[in-house]
Amino acid sequence: MRFSVLSSILANALSASAGTILWDGRFNDLSSSKDLEKWSWANQVGPYQWYIHGSSSVTAYVNLSPDYKNPADSGSKQGAKITLDNTAYWNGQNMRRTELIPQTSAAINQGKVYYHFSLMRKNTNPPATTREHQIAFFESHFTELKSGLLSGAPGESDSLLRWCVGGQTQWSTDWEADVWHNVAYEIDFSANTVGFWHSTGSDPLTQKVAPISASTSSNGADWHVGVLELPRSGYPDTTEDYYWSGVYIESGSITTNIAGPGAPSDGGSGNSTTSVTVAPPSTTLATSTTKASSATTTSAPATSTTAGSGGCTAAQWAQCGGINFTGCTTCASPYKCNFINDYYSQCY
């Protein structure tokens, strides 16, 4: 009995948070999904950029509830249900998309970092097995989850959930209903490698694939928390729901405990918490440079602007122009100031 208690204490200690939270997307600061609509290119507030969605109101595509989170994720107050319906077409594309992008200037694209999330489906409104779905992906698709029949693959359907690197499957499992899949992408942007951690339910994360070589390309504002579905002729749209929990990005040592950073350490009573380090905020907001992307990741054309002579230089990916912008308008060599929209130009 004594050994059992000591083992339990040791296991909890080893799985407690030891990293630094760079960005927290666990929906704890949102009273409802309608809070997402406060974000705009002119008013970049909140934890997420919200612009990749269909023509209906936000509640058609994203809803929040404690019922939508992994019960083991006591660090989250609620989870999100992200939906594709017959209106979920963005920007005139022929692909259904509902996606959230981190709104942060933290260094989530530098050094070694861990991108955490939990994902689940139900038998009600399940993802179609007859179409490819790209889930939790980067603009360059160097790493992502995929489900359904991959585009161009033979056959009628595919029930697997896959982790892919550069489009190649490195790990897979049958995607059963009501099973929470806990995931962490281990990304080393300096070494150009990516590894895969996974567990189900309340089990702690374990490394399933050691880091392998990848083209780890990201501007720090192009990770898509959501889903892009490729079209397939002859297969009509059906409503699909995806459940998300425990979304955050950390540096340092990986948190393997599904309770997550800052979660009660006493089984959820709230009397004590683990120690959590949060990276200090930056004053510069990061904005996606790829407002129009597709399955082949085609970016919106960037228009070059003339940099001013403000006596200072902005680094790569920094803001360099826009309405009411008062910072550096000259980019450090060899970067140029590129127009994104009326409120934002960026060095790259």
TrEMBL record:
Residues 312-348 form the CBM1 domain. SMART domains: fCBD (SM00236). The keyword Endoplasmic reticulum does not apply. The keyword Transport does not apply. GO terms for biological process: polysaccharide catabolic process. Keywords: Carbohydrate metabolism, Polysaccharide degradation, Signal. Residues 1-18 form the signal peptide. This is Carbohydrate-binding module family 1 protein. It comes from Thermothelomyces thermophilus (strain ATCC 42464 / BCRC 31852 / DSM 1799).
